[in-house]
Specification:
This protein is an alpha/beta fold. The chain contains three helices and seven strands, in the order βββαβαβββα.
Length: 144
């Protein structure tokens, strides 16, 4: 497999799903005190993580990667709390798209995340990201 990009984000990865907040606009209801229009947005913890994590994504490709890729994530968490690995991967996928490393995180571009793991490292939480060019011939799933 041909390595296209490699990054290490020296932060404890935050998920988007568990760090959201409900905010509102418009006049408040006199009975319940809720705003007229409510919507969900990313919470402060995720926003701070995204800003800090973007600094670790260097060097970036000149153009976002648009070819099919296999991404291998090794996410080392700082606590032993139970965490949904798919939410961690989705958060990292979105970060790679937002920062122009990948053109999109749909199935036509991210073809595989085989080999990805969530592990524990109290001393050095981090996310190690390796992006490889995807090859149908080398894909284990297509050989069986």
């Amino acid at each position: 497999m041909r390595l296209l990009a490699q990054y290490t984000i020296e932060l404890d990865t935050r998920t988007k799903k568990n760090h959201m907040s409900i905010v509102g606009t418009g006049a408040k209801c006199p009975k319940c005190g809720k705003k007229a229009r409510l919507f969900i947005r990313q919470g402060r913890a995720n926003n701070e993580y995204t800003l800090k994590a973007a600094q670790y994504l260097t060097p970036r490709p000149r153009e976002p990667i648009a070819e099919p890729v296999q991404i291998v994530y090794r996410v080392y968490t700082g606590t032993r709390r139970v965490v949904d690995d798919l939410n961690l991967y989705a958060s990292l996928d979105d970060l790679l798209v937002k920062e122009g490393v990948l053109r999109d995180d749909n199935r036509n571009i991210i073809r595989s995340r085989d080999g990805s793991r969530v592990l524990y490292d109290k001393e050095r939480p981090r996310a190690e990201i390796r992006i490889y060019a995807y090859s149908e011939e080398e894909d284990y799933a297509t050989r069986n």
